[in-house]
Amino acid sequence: MKESFCKKYSTTQQQINLLKARGLIINDEKKVADYICNIGYFRLSAYFYPFLKSPKENHVYKANSTFKQVMDIYRFDRKLRLLLFNEIEKIEVAIRSCIVNTACDLLEDIFWITNPAFFYNRKKFDFAISSIDSEIHKSKEDFITHFKETYTDSYPPAWMIVEILPLGTLCYMYMNLKDTSLKKRIAQHFGLQIPTFNSWITILAGLRNMCCHHTRTWNRELPVIPSEPKQITHPWINSDGIDKKRMYYRICMIYYFLFTVSSNNTFKQKLKELLNHYPNVDIRAMGFPTNWEKEPLWM
Known about the structure:
Shape: globular
């Protein structure tokens, strides 16, 4: 049964006093007050949680737990998001380019993205068109303004529209393409089959948004289970026993895409450096298996 939210606002000092009363070691209250003020107690609460004793509902911290340990996890999570976002950006740009160029070539229509004849489900197409209309209307990009002022066509060519569409919308349109051979060629460019490519690009779009919105990432259990690749072009992992809802599997997906997108990338080195810099972060909470570096993907 629902009830009214009855918690009251607490000042920074009251929050510090509460943490200390629950057993968290705080050595420099002024510095901690600055962190809470600039980051927010509520945002940090997700990073306090791993240090609570069981049952966690009692809100008592494990022996020798410190605010510094909490901040180490917070910093690790922030740097992980930045690392992942940097690589997802490369993948996103490559996906946009591959979809628009392959479709223009095979369909022989530079306006294919706004032509319902090339899409399977009309309702899904109409939904995507409404998104395209919205993005064009609010766009301040010079190339969109120039097109509106110069040409009489109802829509710009596909390569312009693709640049202003959210990745999620583009994924949605890819999945609705009628031509299976077109979808297959795009997926195979990245060493995947259509179902797995569908799944992975949708999941990466969601992960990208998490990184953009500063959402806790490292130990999160994510709601969507990625599709397992059945035919692969590049080395992959033995996923038996791997929790696909955890971040490790998504990190592997990113690295797999990079074989195509950026073959000389330094993602593995940067990931290892980050993990080594924060040795107290429990990577098992991210789904990393023992001896993960010996998997074919990471060799």
